[in-house]
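User: Quick sanity check before I run a bigger batch. Here is a single chain. Can you write out its predicted 3D structure?
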Amino acid sequence: MTKIHWDRVQAGVAREKNKMIWRPYGAPQILSLETSALHDAPVSVPWKIPEKLAVSVAITGAFFRHDQNPNQPLTTDAIRDSAMQVLDAGASTVHIHVRDDQGFNVVSLERFRSVIEPLKERHPQLAVDGCLVPALEGEWDEMKRVLDSKLLDAAPVNATATYIGDSLFAKPAPILMEKTRLIAESGSVPEIAVYTDGDVSNANRFLIQSGLIKTPAVWLVLPALPGCSPMDNPRQMIEGLTRSVAAIRDIDPDAMVMVCAAGRAAMYVATMAALMGLHIRIGMEDTYWLWPHRDDRIESNVQAYGLASKLSDVVGRPVATQAEYRRMIGA
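Assistant: Done. Predicted structure follows.
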């Protein structure tokens, strides 16, 4: 057990005459958060982060079904209605997947049209992105039909080769490059989607150094799913996100970076991203949990957007309007 030498402690107290050391050299100014009384240079200035927070809501994604979250929108009508709710509530944009009659992800011009056209009719400034992942026979040609329709203002390109859950998810470099070319030539904005910091190198080598995508670019950071940048505790979340963003800034200093809530980390990593001056994508695509430390399921996309809206108030960054978001991505 540690022994404290109280005789020496008391001698020290007596020597200091029971007082702390206090020398107010700047009196009468004691403390300012902006200047020093001893010189005129500012010592604290406003941070250089975007004033507005872009909030995208990913409505359903490709994976989760009702046995994982009974609230998951699966039908075309449910996807459209959920998207309309969050846009009416003030979301900057929505990210759209569509499902087939069995509830599986599908690339379908007709289904994209039935979702997106009513959204744009009510919200004329809306810039919407849709996920076009041609994994099955015929979907590459259908992807080109969707792009040619001009329904989409942006589309992700997944610069990755990784396991996501129990599936190998890989974009061969030629497919990655050709898809990027098709998106750009359709007039849409290619968004660079990265799942690990190694994907940033892939994007740099194949998309940026090749000249297919000019910087500053739009980046989507998708961590925390099984197989992606691990975020199984707060330390991993903080270190993983700062590492990925730093890697992006090294090659694209002025990038627009949107962090996509996923896995258990979802709302916490969105909070961290908002604090870092980044933008966020929340919703029911990449998670069905509200919090990392509880098993509460997301009840609706508008519930998730409500949390993001409160977050914007807390960090003092109003949610970007749909017109502002369109300008942000250059659509």
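Residues 234-251 form the longest helix (18 residues).

User: Great, the batch can go ahead then.
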